[in-house]
Model the fold of this input.
Amino acid sequence: MLTSERARVRRLGNFAFAMRGVTGIRRTRWLLNVRQVPRPPIERRAPQPVDAVDLAIAERLIAAHRTPSAPAAGENMWAWISENRQRELAERLAGDDPRALAQLLVAMFREDFVLGMAQGPLVWRANSRLEDQAWALKSVDSLVSLAEAAGVVPVENPEQGGSGLAFRGGLEGLLTALEEALGFRLDFPDVGAQSGLLVDGRLITPSTPDQVYAALRLDDAIRINLDTDSAAHPRVTEIGGGYGALCYWFLQRRPGVASYTIVDLPLVNAIQGYFLARALGPENVSFHGEAPSLVRILPDHALAEAAAPCDAVVNKDSMPEMPPEAMVEYLEWAKKNCRGVFYSYNQEAAGEFLGEAQGVVPAAVAELGGFERVRRETAWVRVGYVEEVYRCMAAAEARGERPHASQASPRRTSGPPSA
Ligand SMILES: C[S@@+](CC[C@H](N)C(=O)[O-])C[C@H]1O[C@@H](n2cnc3c(N)ncnc32)[C@H](O)[C@@H]1O
Done:
């Protein structure tokens, strides 16, 4: 529906998605008195004009994309997405015109090719006040969940009444307190023409709170489970990084990261590659075939090139959507090459796509063996998502080492992220 050629069907799809977001809010009591919830305006940023930096990045992306790879094939969700939503991007990457590619990328959050990893196009196209209000409600709910998880505001309790506790200092006050506790600004970088809430001069996308939350949890998993040296300078590998949000916020959260590698499908490499190169600086991000930088973007067929051993493997909202053999291949890679932790933030509803049930991470991990689960809990921000932290036993033992164990703090099995 979202990408139908019929405008009315698209509009309906867009509306349905905005409403579906409301069904996923955590504080359903708010719906009884929706007026108490601040709903700031939606900002729709204009694309920045293509400049020399964009052209240089686009040239590098075209060169990186020339390495041979099999197109995403088969009857799986991402083969479908690639076929139905990413054709124009694929054509421009395969062409020889950096400007044409850059023109697409400077407005990426309005384009269908990011659907499945960002809601930007849906928010941008929302064409009724009700849709705007639904996105605002969902975004504010997520922001409050993040603030609750970070301990910046008390948690609401339906048994005690008192709804809207987080707004006592206004939404601006909440945001300022949250930023102070986190140590970085929550404004989305001005890259790709994003859309989201405008609060006190910051653009907060509907998924920013969830991405920031995952970054805090990954940070916690590393600090709690790794030895002091590795925790201070971790080498992180992310599988299926979307447009690069988790990587971006994780790097805002903590200095000293030794390397952050993202392994993803080649077309999505271009999306995350452009976003991160613009948001972090082109010199900090390398593409396939280039000398490694702090952030390294690799296609799935180059998994063997990812730096090993690494200290943490992370997967957020993606292993279940991959073909089962791809999920197993990544887990095998982690088993062999990660000597620290595997952090999984996924749904496990095994919903069907094209008649195939999606994968379930804990089931696949249990079948493979070599991991010890040290934490499992539902996420504070995103309803229906499960966070798990596994210590990777096999790689460390194969090297005759003990798996990383924190000397700094006792092992913890649950609890909110440290702010
Ligand atoms: C729903 S998106 C989630 C993106 C990101 N982790 C997030 O939470 O925003 C799923 C991600 O998995 C990636 N993906 C799908 N199949 C893959 C595969 N076989 N290998 C690596 N990544 C894959 C997609 O390209 C996309 O980046």
Summary: The pocket of S-adenosylmethionine is lined by residues 78, 116-117, 239-242, 245, 263-265, 268, 300, 316-318, 321-322, 326 (CB under 6 Å). DSSP finds 15 helices and 13 strands in the chain.
